[in-house]
Amino acid sequence: MSRAASSTAHQQIATWLDEQIPSMMAQCKLPGFSMAVVHNGAICYADGFGARDAQRNLPATADTLYGIGSVTKSFVALGILQLAAAGKLDLHDPVSQHIPFALGLPDAPITIHHLLTHSLGLPNLATSTMLIGKGLGLESGIPLSSPNDFYRFVNGAQAEIVAKPGERFFYHNAGYRMLGHIIQATSGLPFHEYLQQKVIAPLGMPRTTFAVAAMQADPDHAVFHRKTATGANEPAPFPYPSPVDNPAFSFLSAAGGLFSSVNELAKYVQMHLELGQSQTPPLLSQAAFAQMHTAHMPRPAQNPMPDGTFAQQGYGYGLAVTPNFLGHKLVAHDGSVVVSTASLAFMPELNAGVVMMGNGAGMPYATIAQSVFAILLGKEPAAVIPALQIESRMAQLTGTYATYRGIETIKVVNKGGLLYTEATDPITTATTLTPLIPEDPTLASTRFYTLSNGVKSPVEFWIDEQGDTRLIIERYGYRKVG
Fold first, then answer.
1. For 88, phi and psi rounded to 5 degrees?
2. pLDDT digits over 214-264, tens only?
3. Cβ atoms 384, 371 nearer than 8 A
4. Lower CB count within 10 Å: N or C terminus of the chain?
5. Does the structure show a pLDDT above 80 at 307?
6. What is the mean pLDDT of the chain?
7. For the range 19-25, what are the long-range contacts, defined as Cβ-Cβ under 8 Å and sequence gap of 24 or more?
8. 16 and 371 Cβ atoms separated by less than 8 Å
9. 96-113: b or e for each residue (b if 16 or more CB lie within 10 Å)?
10. Phi, psi of 103, deg, nearest 5
11. How far from the centroid of its chain's Cα atoms is residue 218's Cα?
12. Which of 367, 326, 317 is nearest to 347 (CA)?
């Protein structure tokens, strides 16, 4: 892409973001959001939207510190690969060789590679649910305050194994906590100190930290929020304990305890795009970065688009990999600790990356990143991004419908990305909410069905010759009236 073409694309990105981000924030009631775009070795866009501190109405900026959640996992993977390069471990070592982990099958030990790729054969044990709940005052009653507590809990789950290692993908926060413990055990440093010294500091990310107190003392940090039952956001504490206070259990933070800003995390993304070659010495070899960016373990795929986009998805080392997104490899990872969320994504062939953070939940991070990349590819996001296409089709179908002369009405509503009919019986006034299951998940077809006790009933939308949206459900025909 020429310099002039890049400049035009960068302006298009800024225009698209300025138009779309405020409405997305309003939809999910997110107080504050920050974002940076990296292209051709430089940050071409960096800004904040809304409030990092809603009560004082302080603006979110590109330097605001947020909790980045599971984006932390790629830092963990990088640390493991550094120790492998130093000869401290082998990726195919049994996990039990390094830490007191006792699960597995006699003929198929769980290895470090299996932890990195979430392929233990063991479903998620919900350690993050316990930890975050505990931090938000929702105590599970299960002890989780020391390494002994952690391994008593994990090692009791032998009966939960459902597959041999390497056979099935189960996203596993406990697995990444064990990777953090392996870093701690093999390096001789508390987990958080190792990453701070060996990864974060060499990248020139001085404000990126695991220390809760350091984040809170920073003048530009986010006030975090959690959703209430009504969908509103209310201030909430950061739910992870600080590893500084409990260094023996520092690795508890390995699944998602890091704080950063989009400006600093953009440096991390740029390192991945350059395969570490701008650091002296490089943090990893180019071959090791390639391992991180390779899909080692297949994941349940999205429905592929006609051009093959999303036909395959997989997990590398600390990063999710889509080999074909609009014809190019897309590497990404989202993160959430409920009260703070984040996402990074990059496309090596475009030499471009996107970093996003919010002080609450609900933003469609993947859609935003994919839209930025579509613009850099010279495409209109609404024409090529599946989520935007589906959202547009749903918007066309939602609304109020009425039968002949308005005797009966029904609403079609969007709840959590699925259409429902909301019908109130005119005689009994009872309201029924029924999911509409699409025959085509991309909504290229407007044929749906309902399912009750194993019986499928067709539901059909179409536009008639007068331009009215029509709906047929069982015996009734409706027209959209609002």
1. -80, -20
2. 999 999 999 999 988 888 889 999 999 999 999 999 999 999 999 999 999
3. no
4. C
5. no
6. 94
7. 20/368, 20/371, 21/49, 21/368, 22/49, 24/363, 24/364, 24/368, 25/49, 25/50, 25/363
8. yes
9. eebbbbebbeeeebbbbb
10. -90, 160
11. 25
12. 326
Phi, psi values for residue 450, rounded to 5°: -105, 160
The model carries a pTM of 0.93
- Radius of gyration over every alpha carbon of the chain, rounded to an integer in angstroms: 24
Topology of domain 3-384, CATH: Beta-lactamase (3.40.710)
301 has a pLDDT exceeding 80 = no
d(CA 386, CA 441): 10
Q: Which two tokens stand for residue 130?
A: 């316990």
Tokens of 53: 């501190």
Q: 170 near 118, Cβ under 8 Å? A: yes
DSSP class of residue 469 equals E
* Residues 397-480, CATH architecture: Beta Barrel (2.40)
Residue type, 243: P
Position 61 scores a pLDDT of 98
Residue 129: its pLDDT value, please? 94
Contact partners, residue 88, CB within 8 Å, separation at least 6: 186, 187
Rounded-to-integer distance, Cα 331 and Cα 272, Å: 10
Q: Which helix (H) or strand (E) holds 67?
A: strand 66-67
- The span from the CA of 140 to the CA of 157, in Å, is 17
- 21-76 per-position pLDDT tens digit: 999 999 999 999 999 999 999 999 999 999 999 999 999 999 999 999 999 999 99
Q: Where are the domains positioned within the chain? A: 3-384, 397-480
Nearest by Cα to 99 from 84, 87, 86, 89: 89
HSE on the CB side for 466, CA within 13 Å? Answer: 5
Token couple for 451: 């399912």
d(CA 37, CA 39): 7
* Distance separating alpha carbons of residues 469 and 471, to the nearest angstrom: 7
pLDDT (0 to 100) of residue 3: 74
Contact assessment for residue 379 and residue 326, using Cβ atoms and an 8 Å cutoff: yes
> Nearest CA to 49 among 74, 82, 23?
23
